[in-house]
Design brief:
Largest sheet: 6 strands, mixed
Helix content: 40-55%
Length: about 350
């Protein structure tokens, strides 16, 4: 049975390490796997992905796996610590944004290059296919459950709308990762790195003027209360990764590994993406009905934005080349996969 633990006040990594011990490795007994993530218990990350995933794994394992989910960093640390926690075996599984751990997944964050923009289902398939071709080395020592994409993020502002390229000039815009930040900078704004839980207060206090985020995230955390203008141009899609400690995976009996495998990979990522697309449509409707301003931008203007941000592609190619990879081939494959799956 999936159990959501209550807040662990003041919990640090030492407590997390103590909690991460296994129970019942022998046949017929129950193995407990602990999942740690940054989102709230009511978030789509929890309700659309992690909780249903846990129930499916538990059912496939015939009750021999129990999954405990600790949302909102309840076991301590910052979102940027999650990858280290799963690598060190502090927890068995983490769910995080690829961009929350700078430099750790440089190829994966290339999937967040600007204006690729398919649906979540499309880009989740692209992400998994791209992983198979080019990213396996980035996940050495980890067992990948899935990479799935949000639906395309837009730019949302607190006090004045963005309708033209010139409107970006000088605005402080929250971004989740480096390449998104470079794209926003190329458009003329000042990127500010910030995790999701800090955005509401930063917008309310005027510490940032706007944010880049996808529709589906906004209503659950009430961001439409502080961001009243929504520029309806798909800018990028964030990459969300579910990672398992390799030793935790390998210690499972073969039939229990199958329970994980049957709820992982390409088909699973596509299915999660499709759920995000449904939630995005619902969220956009909620935001529109709240009376907020949804700003349409013509294709000619969007073409100016694409041209302004095009240098980010070249930078990513160069950085992949510097890591000994064929950056141009990677970019060509990425664009071909977007076209293949319908972006």
């Amino acid at each position: 049975m999936t159990r959501l633990r209550g807040a662990v006040a003041g919990a640090g990594l030492g407590l997390a390490a103590a909690l991460s011990g296994w129970s019942g490795a022998a046949d017929g007994q129950t193995t407990t796997l602990r999942v740690h993530h940054f989102s709230s218990p009511s978030s789509l990350d929890q309700t659309v992905h992690l909780a249903p995933w846990a129930r499916s794994v538990e059912a496939a394992a015939g009750g021999r796996i129990a999954i405990q989910i600790f949302p909102a960093m309840q076991l301590g640390g910052k979102p940027s610590d999650l990858v280290r926690q799963v690598e060190d075996g502090v927890v068995d599984i983490v769910y995080t944004l690829a961009g929350y751990t700078p430099g750790r997944f440089p190829g994966t964050v290339g999937l967040e290059l600007p204006f690729l923009a398919g649906s979540s289902a499309v880009m989740s398939q692209v992400a998994m296919a791209f992983y198979d071709r080019h990213l396996r080395d980035e996940y050495a020592g980890l067992h990948l459950v899935s990479i799935h994409a949000t639906e395309p993020a837009r730019v949302h502002t607190a006090r004045r709308p963005i309708r033209t390229l010139e409107d970006f000039r000088g605005l402080k815009i929250r971004v989740p990762s480096r390449y998104v930040g470079l794209a926003i900078q190329a458009l003329g704004a000042v990127p500010v790195g910030m995790p999701l839980p800090e955005i509401y207060e930063a917008l309310a206090r005027g510490q940032v003027d706007g944010m880049t985020i996808n529709w589906a995230i906004i209503p659950p955390v009430r961001l439409h209360e502080v961001a009243k203008h929504h520029t309806d141009v798909p800018v990028y899609q964030a990459m969300l990764v579910t990672l398992m400690n390799q030793r935790s995976y390998e210690r499972l009996a073969p039939e229990l590994r199958r329970a994980i495998d049957d709820n992982s990979g390409f088909a699973y990522a596509k299915a999660v993406g499709a759920k995000w697309d449904v939630e995005a449509a619902k969220a956009r409707k909620i935001i529109a009905e709240s009376g907020n301003d949804i700003v349409a931008v013509g294709e000619a203007e969007v073409a100016r934005w694409r041209a302004a941000a095009s240098g980010v592609y070249d930078l990513w190619v160069k950085e992949m080349n510097d890591k000994g990879k064929d950056g141009r081939r990677m970019l060509d494959d990425l664009l071909a996969l977007v076209k293949r799956y319908g972006g």
